[in-house]
Every structure is written in C-alpha cells, then in structure tokens.
Amino acid sequence: MRTEIDILENEILEKYPEVLDILLRDQTTQKNIIWATNNYEYFGESYLESKQIKSELITGINGDVIMPRVQKDQILQQSRVKNMAEVFTPSWICNAQNNLIDNAWFERKDVFNKEIPNEKKWKTNQAKIEFPKNKSWQDYINDKRLEISCGEAPYITSRYDTTTGEFIEIENRIGLLDRKLRIINENVDESNEWLEATKSAYKNIYAYEWQGDSLLLARESMLFTFIENYKSKFEKEPLLKSIQNIAEIISWNVWQMDGLKGVIPFSCGEIKTKTVNLFGEEETDNSFCKGCLNSNIFEHNGTYCLIMDWPNTGLKGKKIRYIDLLQNKHQSINGK
Ligand SMILES: C[S@@+](CC[C@H](N)C(=O)[O-])C[C@H]1O[C@@H](n2cnc3c(N)ncnc32)[C@H](O)[C@@H]1O
After folding, report:
1. Is residue 311 a contact partner of residue 204, using CB atoms and an 8 Å limit?
2. Model confidence over 141-173: pLDDT tens digits?
3. Most buried of 12, 32, 285, 336, CB within 10 angstroms?
4. Whose CA is nearest to atom 6 of ligand 1?
5. Domain residue spans in the chain?
6. How far is residue 169's CA from residue 158's CA, in Å, rounded to a whole number?
C-alpha cells in the first residue's frame, strides 16, 4: 500500500481519467473551485486568489504546486496561521473528540479504541463492534456528520496526522468516515453490497472549507481512503466508474464556502445597476451587500452555496441551499 501522504495530482490524472476534474468541481457554480488564498500568486495571473484551480495549473511540470500543510515551508505555515487561523488538530485529539460522539451514540465508552492520553496515542480495539439493541450498523452509516472549516479534514479521515505527517494504517484510523468504513468492512463481504453501503457512508459525511488547496487535499484524502479500503478488502483496484461515483459524492459534500456568510468566498460585493430615467438620462445605482454591512448571514448578495440531500440509493438527490438549513427552511431548489 502507498504510504506517502502527498497524493500526487499527476497520478490521479494518469490513473483515473476524469477524476481530477470531478474533484476540482464546484457544484454550486458549475465551475472549478477557486484558490481563495494568495499563497500561489507568484506563479502568475492564473493563480490569483479569485481564479479557478484548473487541472493544468497543478499537473505536469506543476505537479508539486499543491502539498499538505505539514510539507509547506515554515514561513508559509506561519502566514496561513495569521491570515486564516490555519492550525490543524493532531490525530490523537481528533480521536478523543470523535470518541465523544460515539460514546453518546453507542451509550458506552471505548467503542473503536482506547485512548492513551499521556502518550498522545490510542490503541485500536480489534474485536468486531457490537451495536446497542435498538440500533443497527446501517443506522450508524446513515447518521450524518459535518466537519466545519475542515482544512485537510483530519476529523473525517486520518490517512495521515496533519500535524506530523505520519501515515496511519487503515486499521488504526480514527476519522468519522474511517469509522463508518470499519463498520462496513466488519459487516459486509459481498462487493456490490459493500459499494452501496460505502456510497451511503460518503453521502452522510459533509465538510466545508474556505481555502481551495486545503479543500482539494481533503477531497483527495477522502477519495484515496475509498481506494485503500477497497483494495484492502478485495485485494484489487476498484473499477474506475466506482471511483468516479465516489468522487462525485465528495465534490458535493465537501464544498468551498465562507462559513461566516454561507456563500462562495469573495462572491459578495457592490452591484452596479444602470437604468435610464424618464428624461432619458442614464443613472447608476450602487447597492452594497447588506449582509456584509450588517453581518447578517441571511442578507448576502453573493452566491449562496448548494449542497445535496442524497436519497438512500442512487445519485439523484435534492439540491438545497446550506443557508436554508440554518433557518430550518429545508427547501429543494429543483422543485422536487
Ligand atoms: C483551525 S483550522 C482547522 C482545520 C481542521 N478542522 C483541523 O481541526 O485541523 C481552521 C480552518 O478554517 C478555515 N477557515 C478560516 N476562516 C473560514 C471561514 N470563514 N469559512 C470557512 N473556513 C474558514 C481555514 O482555511 C482553516 O483551514
């Protein structure tokens, strides 16, 4: 199994046709995700923070442009702390917090592992996980989870410790997605059933992030978590179609958003409308974003982000605005 933590965009491009384009897609705008950081602008105009991340900007001779935070140089790391509060959480803390969720769900402690806090470690429980009387393994897979401002998504999958760069083997992973996949691995042996259950697991994991590079790394990690689990279970590569399906789910569920506004980063702004008055004179009306002026999340004039409410089977769900979940106004925008 590969144990390098930096997933290479060149490798995705060559081995898995169309997958990198899916991972770069912004499902709200139907364009690509944007850089949303000025860290790359010295490469040229296409790397300005408002520009889309195009596959050719990060592959070929540009194949090393995007790398995990732990491999970025110290000065860049510090500037990202200052500008975006980018401090990642060590895996042992992610584990302790994810355990709290499972303690509540299972109504008992130490379900997946036992924490060893003074050594900043954990010991994985090897025995098959038992479920409470009133709950099934399917209930666990279908329970929704969200990592807000996810960075490289260490709470979702712990392929590597985002603070040390240490690679973590599948059986010792502690992420919210890793836990769902462990449950599936323990309960399903037939490959079609495994794939359906795994798609359900991905449909029920959500995350958002501002910075485009971290968002792509989070999406790639989740995709490779799928490939690694499939290979470990069935001792062969998954079909390209299955990889593309999982990438499609990820591109909806792990999205680019300014979490304080519910919109695509930088999409709010001054809107100039030109009208002609009764006397034939042209008038310009400048309207500023009310949401930004009043710090009211419901009044922005930017592009509110769409997410997918998935059906149990299939990939045709209901598109909903994230913002409507905050108002409990769960409405479909495609009329279903
Ligand atoms: C403290 S890091 C946490 C990352 C990850 N959840 C972890 O625990 O390791 C904060 C993350 O929030 C992102 N961020 C900062 N402001 C944001 C905003 N308004 N909306 C969405 N993400 C934001 C940063 O880009 C950064 O990746």
Report:
1. no
2. 999 999 999 999 999 999 999 889 999 999 999
3. 12
4. 150
5. 1-267, 271-296
6. 9
